[in-house]
Structures are given as structure tokens and as C-alpha cells.
Amino acid sequence: MIRVVSIQFNPAGKMYDFNAGALDLKPGDRVVVETERGISLGAVVTGPEEKDETSFSHPLAPVQRLLGPEDEKTLAHHNRREKEAYDFCLRRIKERNMDMKLVRVEHLFDGSKAIFYFTADGRVDFRELVKDLAHTFHTRIEMRQIGVRDEAKMVGGLGICG
């Protein structure tokens, strides 16, 4: 038996199960976990429940720790960098007359990568934009094209379709 908590990375996002280990976690706690994308920050949604390990198709990743004061500083730093990156990228898109709409910028918690989410009607050649971003922010850059429904979900909106 393992202690399992559900963690959400975005307010309206999907919930993922993690191994709570010996940590004393409760709903609302902010925690640091390792995901496929790297170190991430999430919020505990459901408290620890004892579950059989065999009910999962793969071993659950452990929760590394509760969010500490140093993590809060790192988070504040990433939030500032996300805003800077968003503003810089928006200027570059306008300068190059690119047919795309920047939705959001996300820095991974460990600072290893910046992900730029955008919408566009078709394919966009953003190679020069990525070079500018990598040169300015000295990190790996990922451009991710999303649909309009994903955009609405990211900004927390609801449409007529529910």
C-alpha cells in the first residue's frame, strides 16, 4: 500500500497522482514534484489515500517536498521572467508581422526551459523568433501551438460550448 495524493498544476487543469511517501500533506498544500517535463510546482487537491500499488500501470513519482521559502523566491523570479519573455516575444511577433497570437509563457520550475503557447490558423515559421528568444533568455525554448479551446482553458474562460 502507498499513500497517494492528487496534484493539479493549473487551476483548471487535469489532476495527476503522486506518491506522498511520509510527507504530511493536505488539500491546498503547494508541493514540488518531478514530472516528465522536469521539476514542477503543483497544488494538492485530494489528501493522502492508501491505495494498492498494483492498481497503477506504472510506479508513481514521489512528491519531493512542500514548497519552502527558497521555492517561493524561485517562483517569484520565474513569474517576473515569464512576464518579460511574454512582452519581448509579443514585440518580436509584431515586428516580424507573424500570423500568430501569443497566449502564455511558462517557465519550468527548475528554469531549464521556457514554453511559449500560441494559437495560429496554420503553420508558422518561428525559427528566427526562437533564435531571438534563446539568445535573449539563455534557456531552452519550446513553441507549442494550441487550439482555441485550450486557449480558453488556459485563461480560465468558459464559452457557449461549456
Describe this protein's structure.
- There is one protein chain.
- The protein has 162 residues and is an alpha+beta fold.
- It folds into 2 domains: 66 residues, no CATH class; 83 residues, GMP Synthetase, Chain A, domain 3 (2-Layer Sandwich).
- It has 3 helices and 8 strands, in the order βββββαββαβα.
- The protein has a 5-stranded antiparallel β-sheet with strand order 2-1-4-3-5, with no helix packed on it. The chain has a 3-stranded mixed β-sheet with strand order 6-7-8, sandwiched between helices.
- β6 and β7 form a beta hairpin.
- α1 runs antiparallel to α2.
- The radius of gyration is 18 Å and the shape is elongated.
- The chain starts with a strand and ends in an 8-residue tail after the last helix.
Structural class: alpha+beta
CATH fold-level name of the largest domain = GMP Synthetase, Chain A, domain 3
Biggest sheet features: 5 strands, antiparallel
On the 0 to 100 scale, the average pLDDT is: 85
Q: State the total count of DSSP E strands.
A: 8
Q: What order do the helices and strands follow? A: EEEEEHEEHEH
Helix count equals 3
User: What is the correct CATH architecture of the largest domain?
Assistant: 2-Layer Sandwich
CATH C-level of the largest domain: Alpha Beta
What is the approximate shape? elongated
User: Low-confidence spans: pLDDT under 50, at least 5 residues?
Assistant: none
**Count of structural domains:** 2
Strand coverage percent: 25-35%
Strand order of the largest sheet: 2-1-4-3-5
N-to-C CA distance: 38 Å
